[in-house]
Amino acid sequence: MEIRTILQPECTACATPGSKKKVLQLISEIAAEQYSDLSAQEIFESLVAREKKGSTGIGNGIAIPHGRLDSIEQPIAVFIKCDEAIDFDAIDDKPVDLLFALIVPSDQCQQHLATLACIAEKLNDKQTLKQLRKSTDKTQLYQVIAQ
């Protein structure tokens, strides 16, 4: 799977959200702006519900927050680079500066797991991480993550 099939350039951002809650709200707002049939609140609630089960901070400054919605048919992705790392309760207890959020249809469990694995693999590449962290705007960020 290629990331560009689920991540649109408009859903990529460089930001300074300040907290876990604020970054999840930002993700929700960005997704809702691009997908007008969704509300930011329902996306946010889906992401928060998943975080309550355990942090999606996978370590090395990376989080992959994700949630499920009955009201969508295709996965939606949002990628954010934080200008300042935030506490995200990651498994290594280190702050997070790169977040790849994924909202998937509730009935696509296997595809969801495959997509998460693909994203985790991409973000596990040291060269990719270096380029992402050097990116200074959302255009650069998108080009690196989507290549």
Can you give me a brief rundown of this structure?
This is PTS IIA-like nitrogen-regulatory protein PtsN. The protein is of the alpha/beta class.
User: C-alpha Rg, in Å?
Assistant: 14 Å
Judged by helices, strands and strand pairing, the structural class is: alpha/beta
Query: How many structurally independent domains?
Result: 1
Percent of residues in beta strands? 15-25%
DSSP summary, beta strand count: 6
Shape category:
globular
User: What integer is the average pLDDT?
Assistant: 89
GO molecular function, one term: protein-N(PI)-phosphohistidine-sugar phosphotransferase activity
Domain PTS EIIA type-2: 1-147
Protein name: PTS IIA-like nitrogen-regulatory protein PtsN
Explain this structure.
Residues 1-147 form the PTS EIIA type-2 domain. This is PTS IIA-like nitrogen-regulatory protein PtsN. With 147 residues, the protein is an alpha/beta fold. The chain has one domain (3-146): Mannitol-specific EII, Chain A (3-Layer(aba) Sandwich), CATH 3.40.930. Helices cover 42% and strands 23% of the residues. Strands 1, 2, 3, 4, 5 and 6 form a six-stranded mixed beta sheet that branches. Helix 1 (20-34) packs across helix 2 (40-53) and helix 4 runs antiparallel to helix 5. The longest helix has 15 residues, at 20-34. The radius of gyration is 14 Å and the shape is globular. The mean pLDDT is 89.
